[in-house]
């Protein structure tokens, strides 16, 4: 169970980026966070994780989330990641081992097998010795997913993971996320493509600085809620934004 209570993020002491958000999800789910540009979607997850100053709290199984950080994996937007950093694919994936206490310790052969298995899973094993700067956007997103695999987190936060990636990579990533959900994990995804919402998400959070609504996708993803979130200019037919 994950619960957010009165979460707010204020910039410059006066601008409410996220205002008094409350929601609870009881069962493992893939949760889509939707809203217009600048609605506070990324800010919401950063506030939940205390990556930025925020009021309110987030609980995981009735324990403050900040006390169980080892159970959390966070993948920020690709645009915020330095592709020029001199690190190989396998070394990048091995960073996922550090939340389990591997930092500054020699990585064992068994751990490297976990890295290889994760890269096999995302179909990137042939690239393991390449520099991350040599990868396409979709390939790099798969590497980040492999890092999440070795971390074995219970809560996963992904910020716009499908922006600028190919269809094959997106399909591979979603297959892994469905597996995660079936293993009892909860995944939050900041997302913008309304056409794939019904295929991808069990639950939705609709944001426009404040919480518009949340719940099961079939109940939330209806015209009146989308108009309340995006404004009267949006017309939704068959799940596509016009």
UniProtKB/TrEMBL annotation:
Recite the UniProt keywords alphabetically: ATP-binding, Nucleotide-binding
Keyword Nucleotide-binding belongs to the record: yes
Which superkingdom, per the lineage? Bacteria
What protein name is recorded for this chain?
Answer: Metal ABC transporter ATP-binding protein
């Amino acid at each position: 169970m994950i619960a957010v209570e009165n979460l707010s993020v204020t910039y410059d002491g006066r601008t409410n980026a996220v205002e008094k958000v409350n929601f609870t999800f009881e069962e493992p789910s893939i949760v889509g966070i939707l809203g217009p540009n600048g609605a506070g979607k990324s800010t919401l997850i950063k506030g939940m994780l205390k990556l930025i100053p925020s009021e309110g709290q987030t609980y995981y199984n009735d324990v403050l989330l900040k006390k169980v950080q080892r159970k959390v994996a966070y993948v920020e937007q690709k645009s915020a990641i330095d592709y020029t950093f001199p690190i190989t694919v396998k070394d990048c994936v091995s960073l996922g081992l550090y939340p389990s206490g591997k930092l500054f310790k020699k990585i064992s052969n068994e751990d490297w097998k976990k890295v290889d298995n994760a890269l096999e899973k995302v179909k990137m094993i042939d690239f393991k010795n390449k520099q991350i700067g040599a990868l396409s956007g979709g390939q790099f997103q798969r590497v980040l997913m492999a890092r999440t695999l070795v971390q074995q987190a219970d809560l996963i936060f992904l910020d716009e993971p499908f922006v600028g990636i190919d269809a094959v990579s997106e399909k591979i990533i979603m297959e892994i996320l469905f597996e995660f959900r079936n293993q009892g994990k909860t995944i939050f995804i900041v997302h913008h493509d309304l056409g794939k919402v019904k295929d991808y998400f069990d639950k939705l959070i609709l944001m426009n600085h404040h919480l518009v609504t949340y719940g099961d996708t079939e109940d939330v993803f209806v015209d009146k809620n989308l108009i309340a979130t995006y404004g009267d200019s949006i017309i939704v037919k068959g799940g596509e934004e016009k």
